[in-house]
Amino acid sequence: MNQRKIVIAPDSFKESLTALEAAEAIKKGLQYIWPDADYVLVPMADGGEGTVRSLVDALHGQIITQEVTGPLGKPVSAFFGLVNDGTTAIIEMAAASGIEHIKPEDRNPLIATTYGVGELIRSAMDHGANHIILGLGGSATNDGGCGMAQALGARLLDDSGRELGFGGAALDELASIDLSCFDPRIKTIRFEAATDVTNPLTGTQGASAVFGPQKGASEQDVCKLDHALKNFSEVVNRDFGIDIDRVPGAGAAGGLGAGAIFFLNSKLRPGIDLVIKESGLKQKLSGASLVITGEGKIDGQTVYGKTPIGVARCAKEQHIPVIGLAGSLGNGCDAVLSHGIDAFFSIVPGAVSLEIALHEAKANLIRTAANVARVWQMAKN
């Protein structure tokens, strides 16, 4: 069969290959069998780590690096992406306020801040962006996005009119929010926040209870942080008439989802949907004979908003077969067969250490893609 058009749309293979590098490796393997096919590479992500790189690669944009305030107040090197001739900025909040910036023994969500996220937003506006996509995930913070707002000019005040310091715990003393000096450009920007969680801001399924412990919060800290975020939501509801507490996704990134709703008037959307839209995946699928997607691990959780399923869903709208490739296959991986993926394969040839698997990911991906093409060719003949 003459493979006229093949769309290759993987996520990154974490710690080994970016989404673009994975796509290029798959293409190289397929070319051994189909050297003359029309290959369309669409690096993908689901709104979390790697989203900036994927969209910049897919849309031929640029990465802007900048020093910002890190989660514990010390400077860190962060970045954001500009695409669509600089009109759209993509920001991963973790680039400024991510847990990877803090050693495990130093993690403290009581004082960690999203101030650096606000600095990235401000820089994106300075560069002329009028549409900002904010990826929520991987945070070290639990401050409801209030640090972000402080960087943009918001004043968070206690009942004596004193400004609050950084961190989620400080919100327990919040009495009022002064937005008179808030950056006026915010009202002119279209914000969209990408998340793959539906947790509310507070409660047993909220930001503090579910995600706080992995950020270093003790049981006592969780109660304190949850109470502080509850106070924040009550002040917002009382003074601005906006209920941010129970909105699905409000608890993402330590409550930054709620902060994005209130301070930025942002919509919360599934990350994969945003990436599909911005990358133009649906249009690029038109006329394709085969789609190959993948990520580091395919398991039962893949069906919940992960990249391979988002890609497969789009492909099935156009009746295109889909093959998934993964660094490993986990429990429940067969579930993807009911969600648009027709077949899936692990690229690892046998029992090897994680270190070796990561080091050899590119070669394994090339070889597996070539074997997929061989089997496909035999079936068609």
TrEMBL record:
Signal peptide: none annotated. It comes from the Bacteria. It holds the Pfam family Gly_kinase. One of its GO terms (molecular function) is glycerate kinase activity. Keywords: Kinase, Transferase. GO terms for biological process: organic acid phosphorylation. The keyword Amino-acid biosynthesis does not apply. The keyword Ligase does not apply. Belongs to the glycerate kinase type-1 family. This is Glycerate kinase. It comes from Sporolactobacillus laevolacticus DSM 442.
